[in-house]
Amino acid sequence: MGFQMNSIVIIGAGNVATHISQALQKSGFKIIQIYSRTQAAAKTLANILNASYTSDIESICRTADLYLYALKDNALEFAIKKVSVPEALHVHTAGSVPISVFEHVTPRYGVLYPLQTFSKTKHTEFNNVPVLVEGNNPETTDVLMSIAQKISTNCYPIDSEQRAALHLAAVFCCNFVNSMYNVAEKIVSEAGLPFNILQPLIDETAEKIHHLLPAQAQTGPAVRYDTKIIEKHLEMLNGNPQLQHIYREISSLIFDMRTK
Amino acid sequence: MGFQMNSIVIIGAGNVATHISQALQKSGFKIIQIYSRTQAAAKTLANILNASYTSDIESICRTADLYLYALKDNALEFAIKKVSVPEALHVHTAGSVPISVFEHVTPRYGVLYPLQTFSKTKHTEFNNVPVLVEGNNPETTDVLMSIAQKISTNCYPIDSEQRAALHLAAVFCCNFVNSMYNVAEKIVSEAGLPFNILQPLIDETAEKIHHLLPAQAQTGPAVRYDTKIIEKHLEMLNGNPQLQHIYREISSLIFDMRTK
User: Does ipTM come in above 0.85?
Assistant: First the structure.
């Protein structure tokens, strides 16, 4: 590995930027600057990292070795074209954006996609986060793998299509799962009960699939086709046609996907 | 507590019966007999507990102090009427069946509802399982609370309506959550990736809500109203209209439930 990674500029100051930049700094990389369109966000993260910051894309430091883009997908293309430091390595962190977003803009580029849900206010151990790596050629992939392996023990090289599939899967098993938690929270709090009464069930549901495939772990009225309970639940959701509809659709899905 | 609980008959040999009967035995209760319509299931559980068993409802032992019904909801009413030992305490374990199912059949009755997902092939620590208790009068509730507290540190008296709400919430945060895991598993395995790559994300999604409310923990394209990613995901699901529909519906739900 002839490549020396002395300094990094972080483009973005959201959830992913906040977590990955700290993981990089902890592993010995030097974060020299944070850019965010929102000055307050740039400043907050820069203070954590003891780095400089800017909200002016024209003022981004042009001497870094690595530019790491952790932006909303629709802001990414514009920022990549704007920054344009051809000697440096350019890397984005987005699940759904193919590596080709860098094509014809800069010669060395790739993706470091951390497959995790991050919130600014919640600490996350980065060491175990799967980091999915893609470079524009084998040399760049090697460099990116060596960076990834400094922040996590759980790194894989994958292509853009696989990364898109992972991102779609993540929407189901993280974002959609959390929305189911949210519905459950509303139901128990309306019944005058504390949400944490559901915590052991939520934990065990996640724990179970360390040992069983989800198809084997499926329980509940839908997989048993227990229409009496299903009808009762739909009646309980009478005031909320949206939840009734979702209850029906997911119950059908469970029944259709059951292991026969 | 003047009530002595010397012997228990378990009516049922499914997931709940298997786990609660072992928890009771471990806490010093004597399980004398297992009934199941399926002889093999009755025998398997009876062997674990070193109890007798029967698949003939007429042969259920009539000298027990407690009859614990862990049956499918639609089999419960029939079994309760059939067993009919008026001196004993009769208890079911179902989330969705009101306590009134015992009314006019027997004088002392109630519910012990363990709020957990059980599979026969997976060990579950019972000690932390919330056990929701309801008795037909304060004395019975006291007796049931004292039984519940022997098998779990996490017991609450609640009424039938609250129990029904908990069961509905459990369908969302356990059964529906598991079906989202199942979809995710199918997506990653079609992309040639191992399911366990999603495990840290799944674990963190469950862990996060120990610290944040689900509404605060929500991330992903739907809550950001990132229509570009949503459209891309719907396109990727093109071969599966059922999943496309569910993706759309849950995304709308997330957007509608977001904290403003």
Answer: yes
pLDDT of residue A225: 87
What does the pLDDT look like over B188-231, one tens digit per residue? 999 999 999 999 999 999 999 999 999 999 999 999 888 989 99
The structural architecture, per CATH, of the domain B7-158 is 3-Layer(aba) Sandwich (3.40)
**Strand bridging mode B7-11 / B30-35:** parallel
CA-nearest of B71, B38, B69 to B53 is B38
Domain positions in chain B are 7-158, 164-257
Per-residue pLDDT reduced to its tens digit, A195-228: 999 999 999 999 999 999 999 999 999 998 889 8
A234/B contact by beta carbon, under 8 A: no
Inter-chain touch A191–B221, beta carbons under 8 Å: no
Q: Please name which of B41, B32, B40 lies closest in space to residue B10, comparing C-alpha atoms.
A: B32
CA separation for the pair A121, A119 (Å, rounded): 5
Q: Which A positions 237-256 lie with beta carbon below 8 A of chain B?
A: 237, 242-243, 245-247, 249-250, 252-254, 256
Q: What are A179's two structure tokens?
A: 């929305």
| From A188, A218, A246, residue closest to B166, measured CB to CB | A188
For residues A254 and A247, give the distance between their C-alpha atoms in angstroms, rounded to a whole number. Answer: 11
Q: Contacts of residue A200 in chain B, CB cutoff 8 Å? A: 115-116, 128-130, 154
Cβ contact (<8 Å) for A116 and B162? Answer: no
The CATH code belonging to domain B164-257 is 1.10.1040.20
Tell whether A199 lies on the interface with B, counting CB pairs under 8 A.
yes
Kindly state whether B187 is in contact with chain A, defined as any CB-CB distance less than 8 angstroms: yes
- pTM of the complete model: 0.91
Rounded Cα distance between B173 and A232, Å, is 18
Q: What is the 3-state secondary structure (H, E, C) of B105-138?
A: CCCCEEEEEECCCCCCCCCCCHHHCCEEEEECCH
Residues 6+ apart with CB under 8 A from A230: A221, A222, A247, A251
Question: Dihedral of the CA atoms B117, B122, B123, B127 (nearest 10)?
Answer: -10
Q: Give the rounded distance of the alpha carbon of B236 from its chain centre.
A: 35
How many CB pairs (< 8 A) connect A and B? 332
Q: A77 to chain B nearest CA, in Å?
A: 13
Q: Does A227 touch chain B (CB under 8 A)?
A: no
The nearest alpha carbon in chain B to A194 belongs to: B166
Q: Put the strands of the sheet holding A131-135 in their side by side order.
A: A52-54, A30-35, A7-11, A66-69, A89-92, A109-114, A131-135, A155-157
